[in-house]
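Deliverable D4.2, example record:
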Amino acid sequence: MRNRIGDMETNFEVRSFDMEITKKAYDSLPKLPLYFVLDNLRSAFNVGSIFRICDTLRVEGLFLCGYTAYPPHTKLEKTALGTIDYVPWQYFKTTTEAVEYLQEEGVKVWAAETTSGSVPYSEAVFPSKLAFVLGNEAVGVSHRVLELCNGLIEIPLRGYKNSLNVASACAVLGFKALEQMEGKQDSLSE
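Output generated by the structure prediction step:
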């Protein structure tokens, strides 16, 4: 395929990995030591989008809590585009149960929330095993969960609204974690 980017002409093929790998082979691939915990999300479409993001990052797990939609669910499946079978997920009745479970497993848990004590994500040094709690689109992460977390992280916002779509926030934090965690692995192997 020929394409122009700016003044530079390029030749490239668009790569697609869909259907090129079996579920068994996919499951054997190394996982990013990252988890996402969804605290009572209202939109099943956002949950489906988060499944897609978690698949692209190949995370250790996705925890769906409270009234967050979980499979099987038509709206969730519509936006997940087949990734439900590839992302390790669990349902917890409460977010506090999920946070306590992760902490017992030695995973640091950070809530993504704008507070007076939050650290901008661009300045944070991520631990080797990390979970992000993402909150409800209207009210954020519950106060009880905030109190349980090991840290608070935020995505600085400059607009009228003091929030970002939860799936977008998942992508921003997830790819920052990937960048740092892969950097740590690379530096250990040198």
